[in-house]
Specification:
48% of the residues are buried. Helix 1 crosses helix 10 and helix 1 runs parallel beside helix 12. This protein has 351 residues and is an alpha/beta fold. The strands form two sheets. A ten-stranded mixed beta sheet has the order 2-1-3-12-11-4-5-10-8-9, with helices on both faces. The chain has twelve helices and twelve strands. The protein binds adenosine-5'-triphosphate (ATP) and magnesium ion. Adenosine-5'-triphosphate binds next to loops. Catalyzes the oxidation of 3-carboxy-2-hydroxy-4-methylpentanoate (3-isopropylmalate) to 3-carboxy-4-methyl-2-oxopentanoate. The product decarboxylates to 4-methyl-2 oxopentanoate. Pfam families: Iso_dh. InterPro entries: IsoCit/isopropylmalate_DH_CS (IPR019818), IsoPropMal-DH-like_dom (IPR024084), Isopropylmalate_DH (IPR004429). One of its GO terms (molecular function) is 3-isopropylmalate dehydrogenase activity.
């Protein structure tokens, strides 16, 4: 297959982990006979330095005409207090691409059990994915703001169309996995949650193979720590998803391991690690590249339907961890500390 990919390395460790991901992608390309046409463009601080804007129009145009986008990370102390901020580039591109669903897998890698705060027997079966609504709800709806010194308002608003499209995405993902979907809301108190629940129940009729459960958000927060292995796909509104997915990310023990995808109805998806630009370790060949590499696997799976290729990358990650190759953020007592490049070498060797 031939695919066009826009690559936005960004700032800090972004370019380092991206370099690793692109090497992995090259290995996949060669082994499976694909052609990936990769174009690199600036975003964030690098784009501010080069053009004065965090998302130059050339970058956006290139993104819009590609099949998928890979993003490293943006930001850093260099641009603190500036009028233009690197993070604006990120918010803007999400908006321009209309990526309303944010997918975050949380998978416990058995060899990393020693760095998880949960007991090994609790995390061994954890393999879940969050589908978070990303462009609506409390973070965006009007009215919003301060009215004088003593009052402030935020609005939790959803149109059923906004709920439908993200819920449909979650059902599709659930149908392609074990077939269990947990919809998280606060329907005992919030009207928008009651609407959310109605939409989920209606959509369920089109997916008879998916088993649906509703869970209140406070209970979900508790269950994620008590027994995370019970979940497969979790769909929820913007703020609940923001909080719960950060909570769940701790199960794996390191930010550096986590991947994410932001997808729209039919435009290009945006794939990026959950971690930020980590200025404290930038330029040291010390960053964990696995979050970026696993984001690349998500791109292959969700945008290109290349499941075998994505499986192969995930399996290579598993094997590299099993063989005790670790960057400092996932350091264990057993192995020595590897550089970013060494981890990538090991992945490619196994691919
Ligand atoms: P942002 O606001 O961009 O999300 P943040 O303040 O959440 O940034 P990160 O940049 O994600 O922070 O870094 C948080 C901590 O985790 C830092 O100490 C950083 O070095 C570490 N870290 C983040 N990503 C990685 C990685 N890929 N490998 C190793 N350490 C990492
Ligand atoms: Mg952060």
């Amino acid at each position: 297959m031939e695919k066009t990919i826009t690559v936005l390395p960004g700032d800090g460790i972004g370019p380092e982990v991206m370099k690793g991901a692109l090497r992995v992608l090259k290995a996949v390309e060669a082994r499976y006979g694909h052609q990936f046409n990769v174009t690199e463009m600036p975003i964030g601080g690098k784009a501010i330095d080069e053009t004065g804007l965090p998302l130059p129009s050339e970058t956006l145009e290139q993104c819009l005409k590609s099949d998928a986008i890979l993003l490293g990370a943006v930001g850093g102390p260099k641009w603190d207090g500036m009028d233009k901020r690197p993070e604006q580039g990120l918010l803007q591109i999400r908006k321009e691409l209309n990526v309303f669903a944010n997918l975050r897998p949380v998978k416990a890698f058995a060899p990393l059990a020693d760095i998880s705060p949960l007991k090994p027997e609790l995390i061994e079966n954890v393999d879940l994915i969050f589908v978070r609504e990303l462009t609506g709800g409390l973070y965006f709806a009007q009215p919003k703001g301060r009215t004088g010194n003593e009052e402030a308002v935020d609005t939790l608003y959803y149109h059923s169309n906004e709920i439908e499209r993200v819920v449909k995405k979650a059902f599709e993902i659930a149908a392609s996995r074990s077939g269990k979907l947990t919809s998280v809301d606060k329907a005992n108190v919030l009207e928008s949650s009651k609407l959310w629940r109605d939409v989920v129940n209606e959509m369920a009729e089109s997916f008879p193979e998916v088993e649906v459960e509703h869970m209140l958000v406070d209970n979900a927060a508790m269950q994620l720590v008590r027994n995370p292995g019970q979940f497969d796909v979790i769909v929820t509104e913007n703020m609940f998803g923001d909080i719960l997915s950060d909570e769940a990310s701790m199960i794996t023990g390191s930010l550096g391991m986590l991947a994410s995808a932001s997808v729209s109805e039919d435009g290009p998806g945006l794939y990026e690690p959950v971690h930020g630009s980590a200025p404290d370790i930038a330029g040291k060949n010390a960053a964990n590249p696995l979050g970026m590499v696993l984001s690349t696997a998500m791109m292959l799976r969700h945008s290109f339907h290349m499941n075998d290729e994505a499986d192969a990358i995930e399996m290579a990650v598993q094997e590299v961890l099993n063989a005790n190759y670790r960057t400092r953020d996932i350091e264990s007592k057993k192995g020595r500390i590897s550089t970013t490049d060494e981890i990538v070498d090991q992945l490619i060797y196994r691919l």
